[in-house]
Specification:
By secondary structure, this protein is mainly alpha-helical. The protein has helices spanning 5-15, 35-53, 64-81, 92-105, 114-126, 130-147, 151-166, 173-176, 182-191. The protein has a single domain (5-191), classed as Serine Threonine Protein Phosphatase 5, Tetratricopeptide repeat (Alpha Horseshoe).
């Protein structure tokens, strides 16, 4: 099934185009905070992200790759385009619902690479609840066992430990206008967040 060319563009920017050297590999751009990359995503995909955060692009949900593109838009591009603002997290609830749907139907297992699957699971890790953290650990553990890609599971363990300890991510407190406890402040001083 073909997908919306805009959804394919999201996937190509994030994972590399099929057949390119970066396709099916872990990309450094995922983990580096670079203003130029954030600005490029905002310029190219800002309007699409606004549409997705407003509940649009429902037709993308008709395929597993379209659903993944929507998850990447809502869960990843939002963090790049709206870094250090509450809008960075505005798509999280919908991204989590889409991720749950992919897992429930087994469509996550039909995604083209371990890295595609990993980003389908990322909304579980980003959610500030222990049930989502347990699911994150399960999914990333399974991914590690099946593919040998372990870095995502290691990150999931770190994130679950923070939610288990604080019930939320302390590094979001300032952005979301939440009070920071002394214990959270001490953790932030040592770790700085993710």
């Amino acid at each position: 099934m073909s997908i919306d060319p805009r959804a394919q563009d999201v996937l190509d920017v994030w994972f590399g185009a099929a057949g390119s050297p970066e396709y099916g590999t872990e990309r450094k751009t995922w983990w580096k905070k670079k203003r130029a990359f954030d600005a490029m995503l905002a310029e190219r995909f800002g309007a699409l992200l606004d549409e997705a955060q407003a509940g649009g692009l429902r037709d993308w949900e008709r395929s597993s790759l379209g659903t993944l593109a929507l998850i990447v838009l809502l869960d990843q591009f939002s963090r790049n385009c709206h870094r250090h603002t509450p809008r960075a997290f505005a798509g999280d609830a919908r991204a989590l619902a889409l991720a749950k749907s992919l897992v429930e139907t087994g469509d996550d297992l039909r995604l083209p690479s371990a890295f595609h699957r990993a980003f389908a699971y990322m909304p579980f890790q980003h959610d500030e609840s222990m049930p989502s953290q347990r699911e994150s650990l399960r999914l990333f553990g399974k991914l590690k066992d099946e593919t040998g890609v372990s870095s995502f599971h290691e990150s999931a363990v770190e994130h679950a430990d923070v939610i288990g300890r604080f019930g939320r991510y302390p590094h979001r407190n300032r952005i979301l206008g939440r009070e920071t406890s002394p214990e959270e402040a001490a953790w932030l001083a040592e770790h700085g967040g993710f």
